[in-house]
């Protein structure tokens, strides 16, 4: 017998979280719980404001329609909304025991907050020192100076940078000007420095700073190709779609010799633990970009190992079905 529950959730965010020039005060989404006899599976559906094409309201309507059909004994096709497809495919994968339990919780540290505390935290990282830093929120010159300072102060640090297409070619060059040439090789990659892909490719050729595709993976005209200066792709499953689509992108990138990083779209702890399992399964050689839990004020249902945030149970969720 098939049973379904759908819940809505909200988590207050830290005051400093800014996405695409808008402050994110609350992260919200849906959980889907599928049961078929003794088997069960959970999935998270959480469109990211400013990045997802679908709204939470659209995701909710599509989710409720799908689960009602599934509960009625059908095998409905996924709705075609990326966040919904990803969450439903996770629930189905858990239900059918197709999502491996092994997880990679060694997330690349997200650089935020007080610079002095940041230096201490980075210097004390055990093992491979890999950290991620958002750039493009402030002046490009300032970003370049901060990146240069971090790389100079911590000789074994590798930085992943994310500009979210914030820079014009001139701004991107201003950034590079303040990063010493001898440190540029320790920029593992810079995600999408410019609005246009051709400008990002030109930046990589001219500066020797490797780039990664992120938003471009979701452009209709994007195709995987070997291109000078492109070192990696960053896959955000909530913005990509089903696990099957994520698998296809991972395979296409690896065939070209590109590094692949599974990355967060600021999911709850439940979603992050599933992403850690997907990362261990599909990209075992890469440290995932999942260090976003501390942007939130609580965990939900499943705990991230080592997190001190309170973990709220199902009784705190709003049942929709």
Description:
The protein is α/β, with parallel strands linked by helices and 321 residues long. 32% of the residues lie in helices and 22% in strands. It contains nine helices and 15 strands. The chain has helices at 56-71, 82-95, 115-123, 140-153, 169-177, 197-207, 237-240, 243-255, 269-282; strands at residues 2-12, 18-19, 22-23, 26-36, 39-45, 109-110, 129-134, 157-162, 187-191, 211-213, 230-235, 259-262, 299-300, 311-312, 318-319. The strands form four sheets. Strands 6-7-8-9-10-11-12 form a seven-stranded parallel sheet. A four-stranded antiparallel sheet has the order 5-4-1-15. Helix 3 (115-123) links the parallel strand 6 (109-110) and strand 7. Helix 4 packs parallel to helix 5 and helix 5 (169-177) runs parallel beside helix 6.
The first-to-last residue Cα distance is 16 Å
**Helix content bin:** 25-40%
Compute the number of strand runs. 15
Low-confidence stretches: none
Mean pLDDT: 93
Please work out how many helical segments DSSP would assign: 9
The fraction of residues in strands falls at: 15-25%
- List SSEs in N-to-C order: EEEEEHHEHEHEHEHEEHHEHEEE
Major beta-sheet overview: 7 strands, parallel
Spatial strand order of the main sheet: 6-7-8-9-10-11-12
| Rg estimate, integer Å | 20 Å
Shape: globular
Structural class: alpha/beta
């Amino acid at each position: 017998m098939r049973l379904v529950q759908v819940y809505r959730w909200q988590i207050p965010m830290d005051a400093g979280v800014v996405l695409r020039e808008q402050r994110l005060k609350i992260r919200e989404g849906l959980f889907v719980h599928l049961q078929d006899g003794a088997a069960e599976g959970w999935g998270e559906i959480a469109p990211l404001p400013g990045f997802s094409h679908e709204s939470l309201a659209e995701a909710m309507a599509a989710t409720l329609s799908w689960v009602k059909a599934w509960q009625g004994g059908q095998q409905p096709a996924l709705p075609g909304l990326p966040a919904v497809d990803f969450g439903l495919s996770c629930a189905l994968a858990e239900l059918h025991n197709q999502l491996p339990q092994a997880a990679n919780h060694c997330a690349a540290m997200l650089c935020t907050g007080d610079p002095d505390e940041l230096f201490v935290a980075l210097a004390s990282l055990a093992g491979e020192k890999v950290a991620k830093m958002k750039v493009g929120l402030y002046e490009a010159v300032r970003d370049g100076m901060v990146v240069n300072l971090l790389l100079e102060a911590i000789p074994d640090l590798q930085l992943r940078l994310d500009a979210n297409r914030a820079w014009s070619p001139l701004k991107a060059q201003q950034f590079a000007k303040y990063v010493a040439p001898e440190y540029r090789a320790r920029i593992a990659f810079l995600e999408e420095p410019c609005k246009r892909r051709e400008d990002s490719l030109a930046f990589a050729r001219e500066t020797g700073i490797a780039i990664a595709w992120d938003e471009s993976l979701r452009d209709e005209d994007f195709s995987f190709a070997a291109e000078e200066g492109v070192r990696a792709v960053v896959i955000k499953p909530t913005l990509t779609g089903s696990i099957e689509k994520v698998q296809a992108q991972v395979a296409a990138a690896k065939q070209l010799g590109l590094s692949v990083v599974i990355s967060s779209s600021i999911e709850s702890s439940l979603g992050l633990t599933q992403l850690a399992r997907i990362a261990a399964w599909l990209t075992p050689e890469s440290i995932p970009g999942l260090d976003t839990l501390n942007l939130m004020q609580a965990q939900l249902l499943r705990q991230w190992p080592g997190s001190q945030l309170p973990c709220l149970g199902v009784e705190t969720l709003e049942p929709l079905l």
